[in-house]
From TrEMBL:
SUPFAM superfamilies: Galactose-binding domain-like (SSF49785), Growth factor receptor domain (SSF57184). Gene3D superfamilies: Galactose-binding domain-like, Tie2 ligand-binding domain superfamily. InterPro entries: EGF, Galactose-bd-like_sf, Growth_fac_rcpt_cys_sf, MEGF10/SREC1/2-like. Keywords: EGF-like domain. Coiled coil: none annotated. It comes from Magallana gigas (Pacific oyster). This is EGF-like domain-containing protein. Residues 213-242, 253-288, 299-334, 345-380 form the EGF-like domain. One of its GO terms (molecular function) is scavenger receptor activity. SMART domains: EGF.
Amino acid sequence: MNDFDLIDNTMMSLSGHSVYPHDVLTVLFCLLTLSQAYVNVALNKPAYQQYPNENDRYDASNAVDGRKSDLGMYGGQCAVSQNRQTATWWVNLTTIHSIHHITIYFMTNYKPFGPSNDITKYFLGFSVYVSNTTARLQGTLCYKDDNLTLDTIPAVFTTTCPVHGRYVIYYNERLSGVTYPRGYSDRVSTDLCEVEVFGCPATGYFGSNCSVPCSDVNCQYCHIESGTCQGCKPGYKGHRCEMVCEGGTYGAGCKETCGTCRDVNQCSINNGTCLTGCDAGFKGDLCKTVCDRGSYGYVCNETCGHCRDVNRCSIFIGTCLTGCDAGYQGDLCKKSCDSGSYGYDCNEICGHCRDVNKCSIINGTCLTGCDADYQGNLCKTLCPVGTSEANDMSIEKKIKESDIKWSYLSIYGTVDSLKNFKQGLIMGASYLIKVK
């Protein structure tokens, strides 16, 4: 099929007759002129359709591959979905573009559109949106069919929509409980052979050849025909984008709020980057992410101490809000217990360890054993009298260190007598302890 055959088929689809009425010729001339002036920014861009068929022949990308010589279901040039209550197809232009008009080639199955073509009814009631996301209702409604019929819907449809956007979305529906006009199908499907989105390949320009820069220096998106600013560059606002974002705001229209920057006046008006870094407790380029568990301070570079609950470590200054874990003390819980203490906040006193420096700061265990006369892990329990050599040694040690030795020697004068006296004291002391 050559270009003239395609035009001929198009004219029949538009008019329903094989002749060329003056108004249809005028529309065709305008379309050809516009197509030459603007670029098809949808060509070979990523596409998606709801409820796709399993056969790759009907893939969503067929509608943006530039082929439209075969408008039949089995020609491999159309995007065809399953028949359902809703049909959604979109093309991702990958960046925001200045759009002028959108042209859709519906699948015809080689027949003129009209009541005699069974596929015509599946397109009635369709809508076209331009959005910056895949959510159609967040974008601009370019066209909503509420008056076309089986006799008037064209096989090639064009709507002018001078807006900016990243996604062009085709949508149709047949919802339960809704009464639709006569001639509408019970279900809908995509059935799009080509979707062409004509506009400027780059933002910041307008005119028939997209060669005229937007008149306002800080304008990013201007009307593709008039040049009137429709959107400022990030960091600016106002009708002519003459105002800079106030401190603490940034982005398109100054609608974004800066993160927790160390200096809020050093927040980039363009992208929100904190130029002098984050305040204590936050991290990331935008300083909107709190420190991970167990870290705190500027850029979250500090490590929390031995908090009783690591989730209760202040992300700002590292204070352990519920106290220290066993063995540590101080606001940051980074200091070990002093010698002779242990436990939570170092509030416990070590027992009679053989070496007080070997008392566990965690649970008070005497790591090298107990001192004389004491037993147990904590060495806080006295040994039973007479059950160990340690008792005798302890008593003997105390006697040796007393003044009794010297007093006795001064009276009796012999060491042997002192030994007998000492043995008597040991026996007497043991007896007194038992009685007590």
